[in-house]
Amino acid sequence: MGRALITGITLFAKNSPLADLNMDIVTTTSKRYADCFGFTEQEVFSAMDEYGLTDKEAVKQWYDGFIFGRTKEIYNPWSITKYLETKDLAPYWAQSGSNALLSDLIKNGGLGVQEEMARLLQGKSITLSMDEQIDFSLLSTHSRAIWSLLMAAGYVKALRVDPATEEYTLTLTNQEVHFILKNLISDWFTIDYYANTGTFCKALLADDIPRMNAILNRITHNTCSFFTKNPEPERFYHAFVLGLIVDLTARYEIRSNRESGEGRYDVCLFPKQSSDRGIGIEFKTRKADEENDLHETCENALTQIAEKHSANELKAWNCASIFTYGFAFDGKKVLICGGATQ
């Protein structure tokens, strides 16, 4: 055999300089063959015209976004083919195979990976250093391997690449990917986590503190090791709650860990419409040697917001009203308190 083409999303390791399997590697940031990994926009729109389909903007939001080299506006070929067949927008890519490996890597990747994933699901970008050409054998040991896999598989795209520092600015590829990852993460929990997402958001916006407590405690009660064994519980809860409120990004600009007043608030929701309330959240782990119970921890969280003027940025936003909440936790036990402050 004179030559062969091997396709896939992770690399074969080169055994030696003289190995027969040494090969030329083409990755997502390579310029060669950049328009051969999927359908171009011209090809997609021409096919839609032929099939009498007109909702091109929606199709673009769902299936466009792939970047290969410097070529943008590459569409998922499988999803486009299925869309032309059914004429319905749906996450066809999710139905084409198993994401078990990806789920395990995200779940076991540590708080850094989970917090970065939460940012991506909010529609934001992340910047990190990684090795794009990492091979399969390092996926479970290399701290940044998950992002190499996600980019190679098409779940994230590189908006910017700095070859000198190997820093990549990444964002989710499109709406279909957002749907897949959101539902993939929901499988971490023994109850339907994202069935509670909308309910928790409604309770938060209604200042229904008993309902918020019931939902969050039900989730933690049914989720064993995540909350009892995590070495950094406050950071984990932070990322966890960000995932719960991700559906509010249409109405709110969600910011976390920003300087405000004399301290740092954990999470603030800035309304996009002046008629909506502004919301500030502070997380606190109970200190057993200093606090009698979760009620005291929760009150201390609210006191910290007040004394350090952490909600100043919300006040400057000219919200219709401001609500602040303390989230106190001790292992799997959670208590939320607070309410209107302005």
Q: What can you tell me about this protein's structure?
A:
It is a single chain. With 342 residues, the protein is an alpha+beta fold. Among the domains are: 34-96, no CATH class; 191-340, 3-Layer(aba) Sandwich (Trna Endonuclease, Chain: A, domain 1), CATH 3.40.1350. The protein is built from 13 helices and eleven strands. It has helices at 41-51, 56-63, 77-86, 100-107, 111-121, 145-153, 175-186, 195-205, 209-221, 224-228, 233-244, 294-307, 312-316; strands at residues 39-40, 66-68, 71-75, 126-129, 156-162, 167-172, 252-260, 263-271, 278-285, 322-330, 333-340. The strands form three sheets. It has a five-stranded mixed beta sheet with strand order 7-8-9-10-11, with helices on both faces. The protein has a three-stranded antiparallel beta sheet with strand order 1-3-2. Strand 5 (156-162) and strand 6 form a beta hairpin. Helix 5 (111-121) runs parallel beside helix 11. The longest helix is centred in the C-terminal third of the chain and has 14 residues, at 294-307. 31% of the residues are buried. The model is unreliable at 189-195 (pLDDT under 50).
